Amino acid sequence: MTAPAYAFAGAAGDALLAIEQARRGLAGWDDAHQRITAATRDGLPGDPCGLFRGPPAIAYLLRLAARPGYAAALARLDAHITQITQARLAQAHARLAAGRAPTLREYDLISGLTGLGAYLRVHGGQPALLAQILDYLVRLTRPLPGTAGARPGWWTRNGPADRPDPAYPDGHANLGMAHGIAGPLALLSLTVTDQGPVPGQRAAIQRICAWLDKQQHGPAERPWWPGIVTPGPRPGPAGPQRPSWCYGTPGIARALQLAGTALADQVRQARAEHALAACLADAGQRAQLADASLCHGWAGTVLTAWRAATNARTPALARHLPRLHARLHRGAVPAGEGLLEGAAGVRLAALTVITGDPVPAPPWDACLLLT
């Protein structure tokens, strides 16, 4: 079995586009069903998997489709996802008890428990299991033992590729939405409203926000964040990096905006919206976007800005949207399949920004923790 056939990186990403088109009445369900079948034809892989690969990815598709004929398959998938989640939680708590640092794939959105939590949030029928993930994320935000609070609990001993790397002898802390702490922050913030907080959840949100505040760079009128933080003399970034959903200021700012909403902290929300608006206005940052992709290109930036503008306290973000949307259509559309780096993600973002949300919940981009 080839991995892309069962991941949003491949056929499942195209199935997601077909499902969203059918939900909006722009295409028939037959095409969506054929694409779902193509995404699952190689059978069920085992662990490791996450929201963007394996049973959770296919279950996510079927939940968005919400067709009666998928009920039996969903029940089997959900039983498997429950087993995966419980096993991952047991491993994570054992690691925490031993005082070891995590891997990125333990907790991140793409492969880890944050992604499984994002699926359970869309599922809506397993609040106790979702609460267990939130409890774990609360523990994750506490400092690593023996560091006197100098390193947060999500600090990994690995390099950015999530394996030991001699260039990163003391590891790093990842800030991004895809693989870093912005993903857990977004999930913790969204679920405060969705299902009510678990004990310590608001304090965990505040801890992450306070740490991100310390990592902020740039002048007050143009704040930005790096993708990773390392200890010691290793030089930091010279300036703002690519303004993407996955690692850049847009994804981090959206997570902070959601945190401000969850905490009823209007000052924090306004600061996050200002940071995103300043990023969008910066031609130097925009010039770093090389293609139209959802993960690290124009589609992700435009969709993040659109979602942030929908519940912003000021109109500053909305004023950027027409220009950004026009720029999205001029970007080089990726030739490959899939959601994050393929044409499907670009088309989904454009469709959403043009037409809004004229479909029943959940929105397809709940998997990106933008909403």
Short description:
The chain has helices spanning 11-23, 29-40, 55-65, 71-98, 104-107, 113-123, 127-140, 182-194, 201-215, 249-262, 266-281, 283-286, 298-310, 321-330, 343-355; strands spanning 173-174, 228-229. The protein is mainly alpha-helical and 371 residues long.
Counting DSSP E segments of at least 2 residues, the number of strands comes to 2
- CATH topology (level 3) name: Glycosyltransferase
Characterize the overall form. Answer: globular
Summing up helix and strand content along with how strands pair, one would put the structural category as: mainly alpha
Q: Tell me the major beta sheet.
A: 2 strands, antiparallel
Low-confidence segments, given as residue ranges, are: 1-6
Per DSSP, the total helix count is 15
The total tally of domains equals 1
**Averaged pLDDT:** 92
Q: Over the alpha carbons, how many angstroms does the gyration radius reach? A: 19 Å
Strands of the widest sheet, in order across it, are 1-2
Report on the architecture of this protein.
The chain is globular, with a radius of gyration of 19 Å. The chain has a single domain (11-368), classed as Glycosyltransferase. It has a two-stranded antiparallel ribbon with strand order 1-2. It contains 15 helices and 2 strands. Helix 3 (55-65) packs parallel to helix 6 (113-123), helix 7 crosses helix 9 (201-215) and helix 10 runs antiparallel to helix 11. It has 371 residues and is mainly alpha-helical.
